[in-house]
Write a structure and sequence with these properties.
alpha/beta, FAD/NAD(P)-binding domain, 2 domains, six-stranded mixed sheet
């Protein structure tokens, strides 16, 4: 029996399971999924969990069941590609014939002193729960600093504003305008929402130091009661410690077939893979579609195409609370209620197909 091991139950590996099970998995292949959580987590919704506008249960999806699928729970301490095995933190080792690494990311602090020690995070469900507890217990009038005005920072700031109208929220953005890579109309819409709802956007910021109740922006000191960090990501440490080629972002270089250049049995999916796109759930799912095709061809000893089709992303969607949103789809900007309904519909469909 061949053993396919999936590291991480995120968006990429969930799509792998959706495509292989129940009918495409060969009879001579078993699948082992290793994750520290007993459920798939909707990471794109962690901002709402941290803000307190949805419950913990709403970001959990049950893993699928199949006679050839087994699930192991635990933290991974080493990916041993030389011996084709995964070592868990309690000493157990899991052998593999083929491996898909989809362990996601963690915060990148850019060597800012105090950032890793004195900020809260929404990169994992455990961290999001801790962030929710801290934010929900703040007294009225407290100041919340959110460092990083990408999609996560924007959604957290807007959702927190709806959850806690009594808080002062400061969103620190390195750029001159919100979401500078997208049309100015979209940026203006998000900025106007923040202006109308009392969220202060601090443009052209550069956080140089973090203390327990203070942020240092350039030469200015800004008192805050809580700081949440959403200013960059990197592959998790166990992936960063793998002895293989990396790109400029620190992610692992992969071939056109999504495996390591020197190991056709190790595939990298999602936030850990060096690709010409920003990491996203959509990108991980598109990668997973191609990885399944490659696996099935290799298992059948079929010749792979020299190049896989170029991945085409449909765009992105973001929310501004529960009633407004923004989207960039097929080179078109959509804002307002329609954009929010689109995002809610996509989430509902995802839960329907995976739940």
């Amino acid at each position: 029996m061949k053993q396919l091991v999936l590291l991480g139950g995120g968006y990429g590996n969930m799509r792998v399971l959706l495509r292989l099970l129940p009918n495409q998995l060969p009879d001579d292949v078993t699948v082992t999924l290793i994750d520290r959580n007993p459920y798939h987590c909707l990471k794109t919704e962690y901002y709402a969990l941290a803000a307190g506008t949805i419950s913990d249960k709403e970001v959990r999806v049950t893993f699928p069941e199949h006679k050839n699928l087994s699930i192991r729970y635990g933290n991974i301490s080493k990916i041993d590609t030389d011996n084709q095995q995964i070592v868990l933190d309690h000493g157990e080792s899991v052998p593999y014939d083929d491996l898909i690494v989809g362990l996601g990311c963690e915060d990148k602090y850019h060597n800012v002193p105090g950032a890793d020690e004195y900020t809260y995070s929404i990169q994992s469900i455990h961290q999001s729960r801790a962030t929710y507890e801290k934010l929900s217990n703040l007294p009225s009038g407290s100041v919340v600093g959110i460092v990083g005005a990408g999609l996560s920072g924007i959604e957290l700031a807007s959702e927190l504003r709806e959850s806690r109208s009594d808080l002062k929220i400061k969103l620190f953005d390195r750029g001159a305008r919100i979401l500078p890579a997208f049309p100015e109309r979209l940026s203006n819409y998000v900025q106007k929402w923040f202006d109308a709802n009392g969220v202060e956007v601090v443009s052209n910021s550069n956080i140089t130091k973090v203390e327990p109740s203070m942020l240092y922006n350039h030469e200015d000191t800004i008192p805050v009661d809580v700081c949440v960090w959403t200013a960059g990501i990197q592959p998790v440490e166990v992936v960063r410690s793998m002895n293989t080629e990396r790109g400029s972002s620190g992610r692992l270089v992969v071939t056109t077939h999504h495996n390591l250049p020197d190991d056709e049995h190790v595939y990298i999916v999602g936030d850990c893979a060096e690709l010409p796109f920003a990491p996203s759930a959509q990108l991980a799912e598109e990668q997973a579609e191609q990885i399944v095709k490659v696996l099935l061809m290799r298992w059948k000893n079929e010749t792979l195409p020299e190049q896989m089709p170029k991945i085409k992303l449909k765009g992105f969607m973001g929310s501004l609370g529960k009633k407004q949103g923004f989207a960039y789809l097929a080179d078109r900007t959509v804002t307002g209620r329609i954009a929010r309904l689109l995002k809610s519909g996509v989430l509902w469909m995802y839960k329907y197909h995976n739940g």
